């Protein structure tokens, strides 16, 4: 990432003190012996906005009313976020005591093949209109997961109001952009669920969880109508990573003789990337190879393609509108991924899809320490680290100069990092459902009988 872009990232924060506070909190929550599994057992992965000010009430003890099978529905009302749906389906359908139904507007880019490859039992995808439709029988879910929650709250208000009135469903809002929840209309949409203590937020990265925590903490003080109690819905971190077969079986000797490539993600936009400099650096890499090895660059994105100089034209590939299988397969074949964030907000309040995509493919990112702090589920051993004073192409140069064994080791770290997250997701989702089901059935407010 360009240092100039990174240097202004801290200007994007809810107020003048939040950025420093977030860095302090990230250091407290995420600097542990094990950068993934140990860290995710505490801190922001299971936090509430008021945790630093008061002790959170203990989860109620289980009672005899809890069901043997938990009913869960995922509702995706727009054609978007297939990869988040995939991660949710994998983690939720992997629970032995869950009956999952997926309502999805439409699979894009062959994502249904990824879902099918999981080999898990669930119902769907069904049309979102079938959820609580007038001519359809819908089992009232214990948990309703809104993948694109900001839109779903506006697109299905009557159905959500009916669910809230019944008091049998806990709402899970997936948060992509934490700053959206400072908007008055979002607060108005969600306030009845917060007042009823029937909602929780699953963010897609630690830094968005921290930003959301600060945002929700300010809800009460900024409200025209004060809340009866300070809003403190649970905030989780759910990393959208799932297993996919991208195996590239080659020996170290074969890797040494193969072409080397790296990928850059992001829309083709000269305001985001200095393509003249990029192609110059690629030309330098080719000259240094002196014909002993081919070096290629893949540009994954959309938009108007930049002009490519003739001396590097045969080494530059524009990859657009790939299926998910081909997309992850391509990422698995390159030796490094440059994420190319569209704005500094992806280090502050928005969750990038490029970071989990690299881990899904088992390919190391080029990352600086600020990215590692924001996306703290990424282990340092899983990336080509951009040190102070380096730009991302300096790091690519080091990657190209590394031995095949060193590149393979980086890739193995990335794959192991992803696998730990996948298994951790399954475990944590089970724990979160366990807590939620106790709150639903053992807090004195739920009816035990199911409707016919």
How does this model look, in words?
This protein has 452 residues and is an alpha/beta fold. The protein has two domains: 174 residues, 3-Layer(aba) Sandwich (Rossmann fold), CATH 3.40.50; 168 residues, Glycogen Phosphorylase B (Rossmann fold, 3-Layer(aba) Sandwich). Helices cover 39% and strands 14% of the residues. The chain contains 16 helices and 14 strands. An eight-stranded mixed beta sheet has the order 1-8-7-6-5-2-3-4, with helices on both faces. The protein has a four-stranded parallel beta sheet with strand order 11-10-9-12, covered by helices on one side. The relative contact order is 0.15. It comes from Aureobasidium namibiae CBS 147.97. This is Glycosyltransferase family 1 protein.
List keywords for this structure.
452 residues; alpha/beta; Rossmann fold; eight-stranded mixed beta sheet; 39% helix; disordered C terminus
Q: Can I get a quick summary?
A:
The chain has 452 residues and is an alpha/beta fold. 39% of the residues lie in helices and 14% in strands.
